[in-house]
Write a structure and sequence with these properties.
The chain has helices at 2-9, 18-32, 35-43, 50-72, 84-91, 99-118, 121-126, 131-153, 191-208, 214-228, 267-291, 305-321, 332-337, 343-356, 360-366, 370-384, 396-411, 415-432, 441-456; strands at residues 78-80, 156-158, 183-185, 326-328. The chain is an all-alpha fold.
């Protein structure tokens, strides 16, 4: 068995072992398994039936992870994206289009991804991004993960939490005003907030001592402690047969309305999905590449076309069976920080998603243990923020786009928004400073694409 794994995944060449890879895969799965519950819940707002959407979410993850394991041989998890699912559910709500048309839009954008990847246009564009910008992608995504962790655990909350609607309502209108302060510190008298702080401290200490499996151990210890205090829900059911009854894919698979989307009014939707998918994948690859020291001397991800082809194929597949845009998950950084370096970690994640098909009723309450898994995201953010030190802060043509990328990712709560801002500013500042000769043609193309996104797309 060891020899088979070695021949498939080149473990020794990448300085890893089956134990490290499996542990890394389990860690990544633990930090991202929330998608099983969250993605169908979000898509339900667009009219997707929630039980079949749950099955589609899991099957998409299995397909993508298997492809990542055996084609790209990378420790990256693939599943429906957060952000894109919200765009599908909420961003398109005012356009009055059906969920079948939304699936068709995902299919077309995924097909375009695939063609661009095969033609090596996407890798060419990705490798044209400057070194400082790539470091800002990693730092911004790290802080983004930290923010998610802080917010999910309740350490930081919306400033309007607990306020009556009347406090924000305009006079005689149903529209709410912006709060004067967007965020505030959470309730530190809440035991679950304290459990989250405990989890972060435990993970940090274990990382300091270089304990293998530090993140996963921290998650498990915090979850067990929380369960002892009564903060774990009892599942209503443990086991269910997949692809049957309410969880059958029959009602959503291959239900795309392709003829209904080939009209000019859908151009902003295609553009938005295309750029969000491309930039999320690029940001993820750079982010995990920095986290795992996987980038080459020029800051490029080796053989980047392979994970991009996986991303495109997964996106196309997800639309066929009834789910939203999918691709590589930034939570993969958690497993990579545990030492995962090969597709064996992705295979482990695929197997765990496969097992979860039979235990969907059991998993639902587990995903409410935010105080256990969210501190892991904060810890990964801590580890990724170090890439800020590699940004050329003395050159404003480099530091300003990097800074814009980081702050807009965090404060607009959207990775694609930050990446597009940085990619627009980078060539613009170089040209205005008379340093256009330093520009790669791909940087200009990316900048123009991102500018089109802001002018004609649907940024959110």
């Amino acid at each position: 068995m060891i020899q088979l794994l070695e021949s498939l995944f080149k473990l020794s060449k990448r300085g890893t072992t089956p134990r490290i890879e499996i542990l890394g895969g389990i860690t990544t799965f633990t930090t991202m398994a929330y998608i099983i519950v969250v993605n169908p819940a979000i898509l339900s707002f667009a009219g997707f039936p929630i039980e079949p959407a749950t099955t589609a979410t899991i099957v998409t993850a299995i397909f993508g992870c298997l492809l990542m394991a055996f084609y790209a041989n990378l420790p990256l998890a693939v599943a429906p994206y957060m952000g894109e699912n919200a765009f599908i559910a909420f961003g398109l709500a005012t356009l009055g289009i059906t969920w079948q048309q939304r699936l068709a839009a995902v299919f077309v954008s995924g097909f375009l991804f695939f063609i661009f990847s095969l033609l090596r246009i996407r890798p060419w564009l990705a490798n044209s991004v400057s070194f400082s910008l790539k470091q800002s992608f990693a730092a911004g995504i790290g802080l983004f993960l930290t923010f998610i962790g802080l917010y999910e655990t309740g350490i930081v909350v919306s400033s309007v939490k607990g306020m009556p609607v009347q406090a924000l309502a305009t006079n005689g209108a149903s529209i709410l005003n912006n709060p004067e302060v967007p965020l505030k510190i959470g309730n530190f008298h809440d035991p679950q907030v304290l459990l989250a702080v405990f989890g972060f401290i435990v993970i940090s200490l274990l990382l300091q001592k270089k304990v293998k499996g530090a993140i996963l151990i921290g998650i498990v210890l915090t979850a067990v402690l929380g369960a002892c205090f009564g903060y774990a829900e009892v599942p209503k059911q443990i086991f269910d047969i997949p692809f049957t009854g309410a969880y059958s894919l029959e009602s959503i698979a291959f239900k795309m309305d392709l003829p209904g989307i080939f009209k000019f009014s859908f151009f902003p939707i295609f553009l938005t999905l295309f750029l969000m998918g491309f930039l999320d994948t690029l940001g993820t690859l750079v982010g995990v590449g920095v986290a795992g020291d996987m980038l080459d001397k020029d800051g490029n991800f080796p053989e980047i076309e392979k994970p991009m082809i996986v991303d495109a194929a997964s996106c196309t597949f997800s639309s066929l069976i009834g789910s939203s845009t999918s691709g590589a998950f930034i939570e993969s950084a958690a497993g990579i920080k545990e030492g995962a370096r090969t597709g064996l970690a992705a295979l482990t994640i695929a197997i765990l998603f496969g097992i979860s098909l039979f235990f969907v009723p059991l998993l639902a309450p587990l995903q409410h243990l935010k105080f256990a898994y969210a501190p892991a995201l904060m810890a990964v953010g801590l580890l990724m923020i170090s890439s800020v030190s590699k940004i050329d802060m003395e050159d404003l043509c480099e530091s300003v786009p990097a800074f814009a990328t980081i702050v807009i990712i965090i404060f607009s709560y959207n990775i694609a928004n930050g990446l597009t801002a940085g990619l627009i500013l980078y060539p613009l500042l170089k040209i205005l400073a008379g340093r256009y000769r330093e520009l790669h043609l791909g940087s200009i193309v990316l900048g123009l694409m991102c500018l089109i996104y802001y002018c004609f797309g649907l940024p959110h």
